[in-house]
Amino acid sequence: MAKDKKARVDDLRELLRVAPGRQVDLAAYDARATPAGPQKKAAGREAIAAMGAELAHLQERLYAASTAGDRRRLLLVLQGIDTSGKGGTVKHVIGLFNPSGCRIRAFKQPTDEERKHHFLWRIRKELPEAGEIGIFDRSHYEDVLIVRVHELVPKDVWSGRYDEINRFEQSLADDGVTVVKCFLHISKDKQHERLLARLDNPDKYWKFNPGDIEERQHWDDYQAAYAEVLSRCSTPQAPWYVIPADRKWYRNWAVSRLLLEQLRELDPRYPEADFDVAACRERLLAERS
Amino acid sequence: MAKDKKARVDDLRELLRVAPGRQVDLAAYDARATPAGPQKKAAGREAIAAMGAELAHLQERLYAASTAGDRRRLLLVLQGIDTSGKGGTVKHVIGLFNPSGCRIRAFKQPTDEERKHHFLWRIRKELPEAGEIGIFDRSHYEDVLIVRVHELVPKDVWSGRYDEINRFEQSLADDGVTVVKCFLHISKDKQHERLLARLDNPDKYWKFNPGDIEERQHWDDYQAAYAEVLSRCSTPQAPWYVIPADRKWYRNWAVSRLLLEQLRELDPRYPEADFDVAACRERLLAERS
Q1: How many CB atoms lie within 10 A of CB B273?
Q2: What whole-number distance in Å separates Cα of residue A95 and Cα of residue B97?
Q3: Which helix (H) or strand (E) holds A12?
Q4: CB A178 within 8 A of CB A266
Q5: Where are the beta strands (DSSP E) in chain A?
Q6: What digits encode the pLDDT tens for the residues A111-163?
Q7: Cβ distance B141 to B228 under 8 Å?
Q8: Which residues form the signal peptide (chains A, B) (predicted)?
Q9: Where are the beta strands (DSSP E) in B17-168?
Q10: Total structural domains in chain A?
Q11: How many other CB atoms are found less than 10 A from the CB of residue B10?
């Protein structure tokens, strides 16, 4: 009976959202959890496929609405430690959408030019336009994650960024951007397993970076840095969701489901005709007579 | 027997390519043709789905190779008159790839800023990076198509652009860009049918522009402008392919198949490890002991 109850999903956002102001301790989050929805891989994959048509349809309506002046768009922010599955999420979840309405950007180590600017400079340039779904694989949060863990800037600089980020995201919300931030939460053991798997398959060597092993020495620092991000930057206008990501199928299902709930709430509409439909039809039909 | 022979595909590129230097008369091309491959919609859709895994795999290898310095990338240029299906091709063909490796750009009427620059300025900014698949929905060819038909610039300006474009595309080829240019060829009757269909469905009003009816008055001028493009700009380094596009499923199959053949020929490889695999594995395993 407990299982049946668990499998029902009314509002996954409510379930996975970090309540604004809440102090997060990541140790309390089980990365293998399946707190709602499908409980097995096969069912999860089926449920993802079943969402595909509705997701694509909602995306088309969002885009169509923009042609008539609706400024709304959606921005999915993916964060998580190496091997948490940011790339896999883009492939499997964003792959459900029409690629022409998606604006995907992976933020890597900043270039020399980017370093000369404010940390939000490169972010602002890549925001989705009206009607689009933007996807950030890493984001401005790197500037309070790796930058904090490795002290790439002094503490008095990075510590001011949480508030700056909240103000920035408020300004996005004011401008019609629905911001959905997903932290892909994996366990230290799962990362170990995935790194080893990359070394076991020559087709995956290109995904491996020996620096990833060193980064594991900073595991606790990263967890603390993520906890601070989740505690300070989950706001009503731009909430953080903690996605249990040890199971890839569950991660994909959960992110798909969050996007579905969000797009349903936006409920974009095909615009009315701004021309005389009957007259146009007549003109076209007149060609034949 | 003729049918069996037709259904075999060895090299669709050879079949659909405009031979460099050939004088094209579009009236000689049947927009409903199915010159090779599947002959029915159901078979066509199956054949497209069957290509998906290999296309995605080749794309991953192209991207992986770029992480080790391989500069190669692919650029798909889609051109065709209104309703020829450029958007549908992106949705159904590019939808087979991992969206994170695709850089899609639709070129609309130039902005004021774009107009101040050379016609290739906005094009250069949107080229795919190493390892990516770039997709242009319309392109620099608009500057010898709509610009020519409506005399938006004097003839002595646009008439010099064919050679300019050939030099530009040669420079792309020199830089590792494989340029695949597809002209989506539809009949005037098919356009009529598709425009009417947009007026019959309120969910499609947003795709309709009354100006499309006026543009039909220039049908012959556009056909002549396309014929000139195909005659003058199909080069060994950047050939044009004429895609029979009255049947959507055939159009999608043909473009998918061209990309497959091209990617197979590029044959990108996963890079070798540039680190000591055994040592890394040992270090990871040592964590556990």
Answers
A1: 18
A2: 8
A3: helix A12-16
A4: yes
A5: 73-79, 102-106, 133-137, 177-185, 240-244
A6: 999 999 999 999 999 999 999 999 999 999 999 999 999 999 999 999 999 99
A7: no
A8: none
A9: 73-79, 102-106, 133-137
A10: 1
A11: 9
User: Which residue type occupies A105?
Assistant: R
CA angle A126, B78, B30 (to 5 degrees): 160
Among A99, A210, A213, select the one facing B102 at the smallest CB separation.
Answer: A99
| CB of B131 closer than 8 Å to CB of B67 | yes
**B101, B63 Cβ separation under 8 angstroms:** yes
What average pLDDT does this structure show over B141-164? 96
Instruction: Find, in chain A, the residue whose alpha carbon is nearest to that of B106.
Output: A100
Rounded Cα–Cα distance for residues B255 and B48 (Å): 10
Are residues B199 and B129 in contact, defined by beta-carbon separation less than 8 angstroms? no
Query: Which range marks the domain in which residue A148 is found?
Result: 2-286
Inter-CA distances, B132 with A61, B62, B282, Å = 28, 7, 34
Helix (H, G, I), strand (E, B) or coil at B35: coil
Residue whose tokens read 């029409």: A98
Query: Which tens digit of pLDDT belongs to each residue from B41-69?
Result: 999 999 999 999 999 999 999 999 999 99
Q: How long, in residues, is chain A?
A: 289
Cα B98 to Cα B55: distance, rounded to the nearest angstrom: 9
CATH number of the domain at A209, please. 3.40.50.300
Q: Which ipTM did the prediction report?
A: 0.93
Task: Evaluate whether B239 touches B19 at the Cβ level (below 8 Å).
Answer: no
Q: Does A98 touch chain B (CB under 8 A)?
A: yes
Which residues 26-65 on chain B approach chain A with CB closer than 8 angstroms? 64
A197 interfaces chain B, CB cutoff of 8 Å? no
Provide, as residue numbers in chain A, all residues whose Cβ is less than 8 Å from the Cβ of B270.
Answer: 202-203, 205-206
Within 10 angstroms of residue B246's Cβ, the number of other Cβ atoms is: 22
Amino acid at A53: A
